[in-house]
Fold:
Amino acid sequence: MPQKTDNPTRGFFTIAQDGPNGEYVRMAYALALSLKVSQREHSKLSIGITPGYSLPEEYRWAFDEVIEIPWGDHAADSKWKLENEWKVIHMTPYDQTIKLDADMLFFSDIAGWWDEMALEDFVICNRVLDYRASTASDDFYRKTFTINNLPNIYTAMMFFKKTDATHELFDFAKFIYFNWESMFENCLIPEHRPDHVSTDVVFALALKILDLDGSSSTERMVPTFTHMKTKLQGWKGGIEDDWRRHINTFVTPELEFKLGNYIQHFPLHYYRKEFLTDEIIGYYERQLGRR
Structure:
């Protein structure tokens, strides 16, 4: 049984597996900076990288620990690089972890969320926001979840402790990852069935099969984040995939982020990697005395 501790360590973790341009490690670096600027108590971010990858030296200082993905790279031939997500529970150095996608930024302190989430073994976000901080309810990207009655989870932000229940969930997710094509075929209705592996679908299916999805059916206020996929923003008419074509963005040197006329307070899943400019990274580095 996993060891319990009276003073659990807490921190954030992300996997950043890069293509030739190094964009995901760069985004993880910006995420680490945003946590250092915004979080009072728990600001450490550890990163999982491809075995043999040489992390740029100028990024190293921002990460708590840099950990090579163990047991080989199961996403080596994958476009989306999701097949190693089940290893996070074995990679994180913390007793309690918030796992994040790399393409996120934090603006406000979420210290109060930790104790609330720590009442349970794991908590996966199941309510996301649009840029106005309203609940995003359109299921355009979630037809698989609707038609199969899956827990509507977003693993871009998930909290977990290293308990037996959490290990059971991750172990079953591992099984699904290794057998995703047959599992999706046998467990999901053909209409809107994904044609590639999806972390959200894998973990939602694991929750349902293990009968652990009860708490996932009620919308949670915590954790949550702003999800910038365009169909979630409530815009009418024809819209493009790049949300930046529909609203203006403003970022000040003091790191006030405004999308349209709305100042951002919740964690932002900006989704379009082009949003993260060198200027934004420079603002963070100056705030932290690195420039």
